[in-house]
Amino acid sequence: MVKQKQILLSSLLIILGILVIFGPIYLFPVCQYKGMMIEVKKGGFAPMKCTYTARAEIILGILTIVIALMLMIARESESRRLLNILFLILGVLVILVPTWIIGICMSPTMPCRYGTLPFLELMGGLIIGVTLFNLVSEL
Amino acid sequence: MNLFFLAWRNIRYYQQVSLAISMGVTIAIALLFLGLMVSWGVERGLETYRARLGADLLVAPREVKGNMESIFLLGKSEKQYFNGKIVDELRSLKGIKRISPQVFLESVAASCCSAGYVFIIGYDPKTDFTLLPWISLRERGKIGKDDAVVGANIIQPVGFFLRFYGHRFKIVAQLDRTGVGFYDNAVYLPIETVYKMAQESKVKPEIYDLNLKRGWISTAFIELEKGVNAQEIEGKIKRRYPNLETVKAIGLVKKVKEELPRLQRYFFIFISFVSVALFFLITIVFYLFNQMRRREHGLLRALGGRKMDLLTLVLLEGSLLILFGSFAGIILALTIKHLFYRWVIFTLKMPLLYPSLSLQLLGMMISTTLILVIGLVGAFYPAYLIANEEPYESIRFSG
Question: Which residues of B are less than 8 Å from A36 in CB distance?
């Protein structure tokens, strides 16, 4: 029963991790993938802040998948609890990267602000929600 | 032990099946509630759109005509200008009550600006009748030449500063949410300040050239005298200024209004599909779930439980699962509704202002009742089958 639940919740977290990686590129793309770049006065173009946010989210997404795989095979309840705490931190980071740590473009008409930001906030919230459910049901 | 308690114990015992049914209901109710909110929200957004435009006619360069919706609905800037002297000439035209010019700019994503790609609108404080009436008199008195009025979607609050093209502006007022990009996504600056910025951008090497001549404007808002035929005025303007295009404000609203029934038709098809899918899901899952529990139900009957008790128990379990799912679905829908508000506007290209709290509560009640009815109808047949089975048969065939 515990094993089945563990596999189910880990699979859910793996799906969320995949969405965190590919969401800011394909589903709710940041400005760069919509062809928007900063025009540099000397000539040429540079990526905007949201591009770096998307890159950081790729790392967080990969970490989510790796830890979810570890959770799937973890036997001890103590190790599962520790992995869940890591998930909580990852969920918070998924939200904090676009809102505070790196940030995104400020104009409300930019795709990263009206699309990517709410998507990542939702994903972070879901990771935290699934983890809390997991932690509570372990008690 | 009453039936309610027994139903609750069963739900807790069969956690995984209960979770699966509740999740199905959660998704269905979230879709239903969101669909209702968007459908009602667009209707409310249209009303606000009509009320907020204030003007009867808009005059803009001919090249902009196809982009009027993107400017007003989404708040995206256009860099096409015409000579503002025309405004003074038009003012003398019989039938025009008020006319006010506006200049559209876009900030650049560079060090000269605190935010890139922001829609900047230069308004004339002396003649404006579309922006200032929506600001309180106290706030209106505070607006100076380096002060900005911002739309509801601009994240910096009142009292903070914004920097555009080397100028610093203090935010003195924020407009209420309208669901229309032109008001929600823009930063309003006095037109004189905009011209000053444009002049400075030509001489300061570190600032991007705005390419805007003093006196040139993007659009003029016209309010007509009562009883004046808008078409007649449009004809006069077009004849006199062939490079300009006039757009009826009501025409902008009408175009969106024509799109609304299509959106509502899709919504209706979608709701029907979700409802039918949910009905079959609940019927099949409950049927399989009850088949799995035939022995348990048979024993309950053998111990003295009546047919009616068993029927009530199964329907009670279904109702509780639907109510839990509904609760989770409403929370999910409220979260998505709040987070993806602007995304919906940009995707639908329609004004959107979510309905009042009382209407939202009504929406929650409608969605929950509809799903509860569909769920109970779906669960009734499997429940009826199991209640009418002989206890002996139930116990014998369950393995």
Answer: 117
